[in-house]
Q: What sequence folds into this?
């Protein structure tokens, strides 16, 4: 098992990425290819205390870096020797089993779609993070890859999310909900109304366990295992959760700093609090798969630290082992709506 | 100053509504008209320990109740003697200065639009709750009244939100942000792109302090004073916040119940925790105004308790005093886009 890592993508690249890769190679049986500016990567490895490149680590040189300012749709072409482009080409050529990047989401999506290609029959790849809730968690699909969606895309997202949830949550028949502004079938915009019909038909033909519309609040209480929406709505949903989590954490911090009494209170549950923060921390989850691409591509959080990168590499491993792409190919016929 | 209260709307009606109204009448100089099933209201007042109808409280009988199952668009017609319809008619006739209902949002919106009417030139009324954030808070507009919006509606929401924020936050030039999936002007769906242009033009003509696109997470950190979006997106935003708040509160509760040590931790900050809960509790805020209606109409949270109703009545008072509707009329010319 070999994971290709874009060493130059993300806020903390290349230091945190290289360190995370070294940790993953040391703590698991995974081989890693680090793609990026060779000399810089070597120096970081030296700084970590190694005299030579550690075993199970390989370095492939790439002279360019895709920046957040670059046009996502064309960056991989205008910067064909960027770490992201080179890494995706390696994946496409079969030099590794999965790929991780903490670089620009838009660039990764475009480049992965054009270099590694989508599974035949899949209309759009989608980002599918795992979101914690009171019952454990659920798969959100799409969370930002596709701002504009058709009902047919969302039907495919429902199936992709189902296969992914089956693998990572070990549930036979994941409950699929459509994110909406109310539970009634008549809720939402024309997109939700038309999607509801497609999902309902899939439920009737027993190929999907569609349980109906789900409100954002109910999803956090465990209403479903897969929450389907367009990428714009998914982004708002996810970023709102992050915003409220950081508001509450900052309020708690303010409370704890008030007096000796409140400081003692914090001290007594210090471990539990850091566990809670960990649970809510997007970095801890490791990464978000781009479902629908023919080989495993994982987007790590832009602000990933070394730990997050290590986790993402290990998650990339399990995604590859799960053969999601193969499963998509196998079931592609049922993933088309009647209009296709 | 007289506030008309729909005594029969909401999960805890009529008990909590009547109690809240009595509290408001006792604790402020506001007069209240309670509209609903007269005998039931009288019995609740008796149960609260009064031998007679308290001073400053008036009861107007209405024999029907609009239920959550009723078609929101037509409920006020099919149930013309419902507490909500009768209350809105009283407001329209000038029998009171403002109205509060914890009943169906959809029904209240349709009924208020048709009975009390919109300010001339306003295309859609919008729900504008005040959302707490690390810097105090901001006005979200629209949070669910209009699932489908045009850029022109959103331009008007920006102005309505501005006037409202000026009044309740006492800011001269509230910073207006457009809720989007990224900060760059090129972000979003065609709705956000077209709205960005209208808002940007308004900023250029110095009639609006538009600061650009704002991500959900940044809004929670104090990026803007008014956050503009369509009602579908606003609903997802608000319900996600509520969902994450309830997830964290339930996790904290779990932590506190673990042992004697964690129970002591909770005890030490008990007061602070209940203040925090209060801050995040939608009931505490009192109510959400329906901006754009020619007279003040306040939607109280469906699950409002007596305290929330009391607060909503007092807020209705300040909304009426602020003469938002008059301000809208006065500035209606600038609230139209060039295409109008």
A:
């Amino acid at each position: 098992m070999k994971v290709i890592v874009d060493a130059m993508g993300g806020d903390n690249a290349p230091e945190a990425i290289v360190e995370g890769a070294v940790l993953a190679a040391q703590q698991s049986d995974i081989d890693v290819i680090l793609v990026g500016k060779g000399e810089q990567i070597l120096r970081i490895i030296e700084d970590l205390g190694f005299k030579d490149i550690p075993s199970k680590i390989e370095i492939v040189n790439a002279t360019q870096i895709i920046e957040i300012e670059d046009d996502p749709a064309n960056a991989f072409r205008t910067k064909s020797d960027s770490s992201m482009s080179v890494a995706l080409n390696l994946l496409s050529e079969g030099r590794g089993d999965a790929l991780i990047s903490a670089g620009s989401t838009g660039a990764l999506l475009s480049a992965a779609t054009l270099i590694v290609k989508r599974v035949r029959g899949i209309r759009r790849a989608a980002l599918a993070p795992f979101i914690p809730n009171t019952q454990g968690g659920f798969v959100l699909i799409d969370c930002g890859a596709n701002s504009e969606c058709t009902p047919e895309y969302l039907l495919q997202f429902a199936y992709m999310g189902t296969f992914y949830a089956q693998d990572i949550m070990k549930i036979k028949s994941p409950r699929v909900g459509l994110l909406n502004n109310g539970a009634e079938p008549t809720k939402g915009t024309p997109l939700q109304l038309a999607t509801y019909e497609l999902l309902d038909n899939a439920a009737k033909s027993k190929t999907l366990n569609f349980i109906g519309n789900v409100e954002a609040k109910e999803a956090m209480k465990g209403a479903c295992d897969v929450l389907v929406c367009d990428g714009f709505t998914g982004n708002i949903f996810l970023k709102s959760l992050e915003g409220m989590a950081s508001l509450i954490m900052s309020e708690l911090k303010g409370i704890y700093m008030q007096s000796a009494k409140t400081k003692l209170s914090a001290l007594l549950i210090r471990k539990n609090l850091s566990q809670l923060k960990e649970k809510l921390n997007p970095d801890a989850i490791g990464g978000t798969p781009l479902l629908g691409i023919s080989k495993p591509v994982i987007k790590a959080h832009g602000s990933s630290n070394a730990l997050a990168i290590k986790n993402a590499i290990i998650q990339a491993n399990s995604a590859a082992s799960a053969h999601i792409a193969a499963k998509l190919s196998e079931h592609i016929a049922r993933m088309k709506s009647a209009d296709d």
About this structure: Chain B touches chain A through 54 residues (CB under 8 Å). Residues 103 and 287 of chain B are 12 Å apart (CA to CA). The first helix of chain B runs from residue 15 to 27.
